[in-house]
Amino acid sequence: MKNKIAVKLMLYFFMILLLFSVIISSVFMTLFRNHTVEVYKNDMEKRAVAISETLSNYISTSGYEGMGNRQAGQAMYLRFLGDIAMTDVWIVDEDLNLIALKPINNTQYNYADLPDDAGIVVAEAFKGKNTFSEGFSDLLNTPTLTVGAPIKSGGEVVGVLLLHSPVEGMTNATAQGYGILSISIIAALLLSILLAAVFTASFTRPLKKMKTSAIELAEGNYSAKTGVIQNDEIGELAAIIDVLSDRLDKASHESEKLENLRRDFVANISHELRTPITVIRGSLEALNDGIVTEPEQVKNYYSQMLSESRLLQNLVSDLLDLSRLQNLDFKMEMREVNLRDIIGDVVRSAQTMADSKQITISQETDTQVFAIHGDYSRLRQMIFIILDNAVKFSPAGESVTVSLKGRTLSVIDHGTGIPEKDIPYIFDRFYKVRSENNKNGTGLGLAIAKQIALRHNIKISVSSEIDKGSIFSFEF
């Protein structure tokens, strides 16, 4: 079934409204009927009291015995009271005889014919109280409300007036009330169902959008958005799905990027390893097959294999270093060190290599102590890689300067410089600027230096001009 939640919501609304309507209608009709009966009682009591007072005055002037007199004047007077009451009037005398002022269907009744609770009504009335009864309904074959009022003469109760009226009016009024209430409830239920359908549709519409987005995300479309903007729990859920979509999309691009890097890494390392391995194998095959026999040639072949094996060793060592540095679980020996001491150590080591090209390495520092928290050997490796490149790309007879001023360490050379198009990529793995001075490089040095800088929260930057030199800066 489609839109199950919409159907359930509408059923829930309908059941609640129906239960509410039944409870309200039951309470209302009970109160309405009681109120109607109470109004009838009050009205009948007023009429009964008025008639009993009139009869009391009549008895005081003519005597109670005259009430049974059949003379025309008295009969007309009693019938006149019945017409005023607009209902049936009975009188019970002290001998418990009934005098019907307005006989019902010309039927004469004795006291013995009255219902059982008539005695209670009459007894209470003879005590001077007004009382009510519905027991006359069976006698009169119709639902009847009867009120008993005492008739007094000289302060004593000499008779009881029984004023009774069919409750057809009350029943009709109650039935009309039920009808109006039923029509109102049905109209309210229909309107409520219509509104519930509209509200349910507005409630489930964003859920459908979120479902569609979730399906698209599950199918790999990470750019899918819900398009739901609401300031409620549904809006918050939609916003979370959109955030998830953004993160999945970002993760997808990152995964694609990492996969490309992995393929490039495999391709690059395969290329870098193939060259020295091919040279070493070719040289060994030539020596093993006796193709090369001249001592001088043999020596050259051995020298070439040694050079290639060293290059291979450096490549493997750099790969291991880079792998360790990129692993966040790899722990460095972090402690308080003096950067000034590290610079001096690096300069002394690089100077030996620089002497072969008559290159002078100078130091410029504005302090003797620059304390930082770091790994001494890794910081030394980072600075040495940059200084080694500065010597490598500098012409013979030039100078290289290592400057520590403020919180910035700079390595300045006056070499060939780096093309502007290559600067954004020089810290990538296996990226090498094509030049005669860089033919023996592994392409991993600057990548290692950058990883060491990142692990020490050091910002590294480069500025360079062709044929004027380069400046590598480290901001601590």
Describe the overall structure.
The chain folds into 3 domains: 169 residues, PAS domain (Beta-Lactamase); 92 residues, Helix Hairpins; 144 residues, Histidine kinase-like ATPase, C-terminal domain (Heat Shock Protein 90, 2-Layer Sandwich). About 3% of the residues have low confidence. Helix 9 packs antiparallel against helix 10. The strands form 3 sheets. A 5-stranded antiparallel sheet has the order 2-1-5-4-3, sandwiched between helices. A 5-stranded mixed sheet has the order 7-9-10-12-11, with helices on one face. It contains 10 helices and 12 strands. A hairpin with a 2-residue loop joins strand 4 and strand 5. It has 476 residues and is of the alpha+beta class.
Features:
5-stranded antiparallel beta sheet, Beta-Lactamase, 476 residues, 5-stranded mixed beta sheet, alpha+beta, 12 strands
**What characteristic shape results from the CA principal axes?**
rod-shaped
Largest sheet: 5 strands, antiparallel
Overall strand count: 12
What is the helix/strand order? Answer: HHEEHEHEEHHHEHEEHEEHEE
Q: What value does the average pLDDT take?
A: 76
Query: What count of domains describes the coordinates?
Result: 3
Separation of the first and last Cα atoms: 66 Å
Counted by DSSP, the helix tally is 10
Low-pLDDT segments: 66-74, 100-106
CATH fold topology of the largest domain: Beta-Lactamase
What CATH architecture of the largest domain do you see?
2-Layer Sandwich
CATH homology-level superfamily of the largest domain: PAS domain
